[in-house]
Amino acid sequence: MKTEALLERLHVIDSEYRRLEHAAALLQWDQETYLPRDAVEERAEQLGLLEGIAHERIVSPEVGKLLSELGSTSENPRGDESLPALERDFLRILRRNYDRQIKLPPDFVRSSARAEGLSQAAWIAARSNDDFTAFVPHLAEMVSISRKKAEYWGAGGAVYDALLDIYEPGITAREIEGLFEPLKLRLKTLLNRIGSVPQIHAPFLSEAYDCGAQHTFSMYLLDYLGFDQNRGRLDTSAHPFTTTLGADDVRITTRFIENNVVSSIFSTIHEMGHAFYEMGFPAELRGTSLGEGVSMGIHESQSRLWENVIGRSASFWQGLYPEFRQRFSGRLKAVSMEDFVRGINRVEPSLIRIEADEVTYSLHIILRFELEQQLFSGALSPEDLPKTWNARMRDLLGTEPQTNADGVLQDVHWSMGAFGYFPSYALGNLYGLQFWRKLNADIPHAEAAIAQGEFAGIREWLRDTLYVWGSRLEPAELLFKVCGEKLSVDPFAEYLERKYSDIYGF
Amino acid sequence: MKTEALLERLHVIDSEYRRLEHAAALLQWDQETYLPRDAVEERAEQLGLLEGIAHERIVSPEVGKLLSELGSTSENPRGDESLPALERDFLRILRRNYDRQIKLPPDFVRSSARAEGLSQAAWIAARSNDDFTAFVPHLAEMVSISRKKAEYWGAGGAVYDALLDIYEPGITAREIEGLFEPLKLRLKTLLNRIGSVPQIHAPFLSEAYDCGAQHTFSMYLLDYLGFDQNRGRLDTSAHPFTTTLGADDVRITTRFIENNVVSSIFSTIHEMGHAFYEMGFPAELRGTSLGEGVSMGIHESQSRLWENVIGRSASFWQGLYPEFRQRFSGRLKAVSMEDFVRGINRVEPSLIRIEADEVTYSLHIILRFELEQQLFSGALSPEDLPKTWNARMRDLLGTEPQTNADGVLQDVHWSMGAFGYFPSYALGNLYGLQFWRKLNADIPHAEAAIAQGEFAGIREWLRDTLYVWGSRLEPAELLFKVCGEKLSVDPFAEYLERKYSDIYGF
Q1: B106-506 under CATH 2.60.40.3140, yes or no
Q2: So what's the ipTM on this one?
Q3: So where's the catalytic machinery, residue-wise (chains A, B) (predicted)?
């Protein structure tokens, strides 16, 4: 076959693979939103089958052969130098996925999928019974499976790095440590200063707000921020998420809590940030494996940028608060915009990661990163996790959970064997502020635009500067391409220090 | 391989086929309910891919080999006599589907799918422009494709019978004619009598009723009739339908029209009737190709039984009207239950099939059946359809459309090449009343139960008597098994004659 024909065939396989993945994503979306209760088991079987078929196709011997014939090897994933750059990037992604999958024996894949299912079920029970001991054997099994996986991939001693690479390609634990150590210090210092001045009280935030009106307001937010409802939708689920069912079908979910009106607002904005990314890939990457986010960290940079940097800013509420206050005038009549903005930016060390404020959030992540490293270096065994967890909480956040359900059992990730995932959340904060600085340099009036409810300029800058690359680059390459710098703590730390010294007045 | 192993393998293939079909059904359901506007094309590609994969699996050479090895041939589809009856029925269904598919050359399947797509698009345009001429070449192509299909199946001269067999296995045009001729006479006679007495006026039916309240009432109906919401759901779509996404996931849709409050009620009940059937197959047929309705006609017997025989009866509203009236007291304060029941049973010859009442509905079907036969006998050519349509409308219903959009172009079926489908609607009326008679013989107090809002007995009788067979039997076999008789016009005609002489008082 000629090169063109080889590439064309590979693109056909890839696009069919993507279609199957999108179909599977619909099955999952439906499971979280509309699936009747008794259909859960059948749905799992349908999903398993569909994902199996998709997997078979993208790691078929034919794909291996096509990649080789195009010069793509594990050592030189981008293939023949004579190929167009776009195709070489395409080969790199396909080779990476191929290598990752093909090195895992089918028996291992099957048995780990089964073990993950059991482990997740055990975690749910353990959390609800606050019974960590019952979860220990599953956790140990998840660690051992991840270790084995890294072994198959030929990670040698660098097991944890191999796991990190799944979520944040190219990064190492050492690099993250080099970022998290200074970040930890600056966050703790900031937290101490905040703790030393009068605290913010915002009782109006925990009053009851009609969930129907919250829903209507979230729909209003979609339009306000420029979410294209012809290419996506908002639904309700127990845990907010974003999912891509096609280049023109990106769906987000939120949830409405009567006594926490801002929960739905910020989770809607957060997921919208993810969705803007997924909706923003250029036409040439449409329907291909390059039309995806670069990494979890870069993805999280987008959701957190919109949620926190934009969504929790005074400028943002300058434009939005009048509308919001009018809709909830019964509750907010006496609440000034300034009080509202102070309320939604209240800092308070707490036990639960997903409820944490901007300042403490990354400390929750750093804790998990430290423990993951110890689990994989062998310095910490699963049964000792609660003790270490609680001690580190005390040290980092000055508070300690009374139950494991509020401590080490709070997150689903480890029960699924998703070790190495947590750091992306904090890395997202770092990436986000580096991008934000660059954006503000390129668009000097960004803040004024936000205050006027004008987001097109920001959306377009992100699309034309960031999203345009799809997953063609590694995260570090993308960051350098956009900002001309390496990943760094300063922009994020300085942003927090400035913002919170303003808010708390020190 | 031993027989057990052959059967087991065949069941694995079949259950994976069913899962893929259910996944495809979700994609379709979503397309009709929640899909963002711009994602329509992508969805078509996803669906095409998924259905292609499902199709490949169920007509693979392996399936052909397994069927043969189990003794199933086109002549003896049920296979070796030594096999258990259930397995023999299973083989029969698989052989039928296999033969139907395998005899069509892949090129023919592809090109007809494409032609059907174009034809449907052309029909949409033709209907909206009231331009039958533009649709003629497509219609001719659809007739020719259907003819060719029957030829591949070896139908010989009996082309139309081969098409009928897709929807109503085992029936012939001659048999249908033997039923429709007397039915036509009795319906026309009844219609004339109704026309000779004072008509019913029910202006309250076309007043405005809040769509939100209509929705809430449809949800109430689900519970009232015993629809298990843990195994299904109700959503909204432009055209109401029922779809099966799994043994425990049967979904129905309805639509809410402000100035037609009963439209949503009767379409909800109609689709619920389909859903009861799909939800009622026994455990042993779960997830297999035997866990399906017998035929379109039998399916329609269930939806029409619930919608018309039960849902439009005075007994039904005796139980439900107080609740309904209370919910819409602004509109219905002055409307007695008797007036309401008369209103929803008003008979009036009209142009549009899907808006027809119980008496005229079957006449719309008979007209289509007559024209389809003429199209396939060659007595009528596509371009002459409108003239014949209008003349037959005048003769059968005493009215004539002013436009083809309200006439020959009103239904989608022919544009998809679904010739032979229409008769099932009227056959459903006949089956339905035969089943209903038997049910009332077995449950003498059925009507009283309905008046008390008690439907469990009726649901259970249908489940244990009808649904229990899945698609193990042919329609005629099932009818005989249940009622001990052949398909006949009398029960349906007598039911109408009694009901409408009561309502119109003659």
Answers
A1: no
A2: 0.94
A3: 271
